Amino acid sequence: MTLEGFETPFEREMDKNNRRVKLGKCIPWDTLTEAYYQSFTTKMGRPAKDSRLIVGAVIIKHKLKLSDKETVFLIQENPYLQYFYGLPGFQIEPPFAPSLFVEIRRRMGAAVFEQFHQAIIDQMEGRSGQGDDREPSSSNDARSAARAFIYYVET
Question: What are the DSSP E strand ranges found in the chain?
């Protein structure tokens, strides 16, 4: 999906330099989606919501330290976040009920969050050597490396 193809009810084009647009390009979506789907069993079936929407909501919720309800409101109000989450265009309706986060937490657990951190770290290390001296050195601390990665792509 390209930013130019994202449909909005607004009269102007979306900004390609927006921090959420940049962040969306740097997230290893396929790897995170795979980790997310591993938390499902054959008894539960496939999730009803798109994995990028759920994975993206978890990333933003934890990055901004928002409540479940505030996260859904933020997504509903912000076209850049809706683009980040992979929605095809701006929508007025909430993408899901805040109570979905309860189910997400139950299914994902610490192991999936660790896979998220590792995928982000791997993505960050794959970017090293491209001449940008702002990147932090590798660390065994997944949380600090993930935070450093998010800082890196938003600046």
Answer: none
Instruction: State the Cα–Cα distance between residues 39 and 36, nearest whole angstrom.
Output: 6
Give the dihedral sign, CA 116/117/120/121.
negative
And the tokens for 80? 């850049």
For residue 17, give both structure tokens: 């330099």
Per-residue pLDDT of 102-142, as tens digits, reads: 887 777 777 776 777 677 767 766 654 444 444 333 333 34
User: Which of 115, 118, 136 is closest to 127 using CA atoms?
Assistant: 136
Query: From CA 53, how far away is CA 51, in angstroms rounded?
Result: 5
DSSP count for the chain of H helices, then E strands: 7, 0
The predicted-structure confidence for 60-77, as pLDDT tens digits, reads as follows 888 888 999 999 999 999
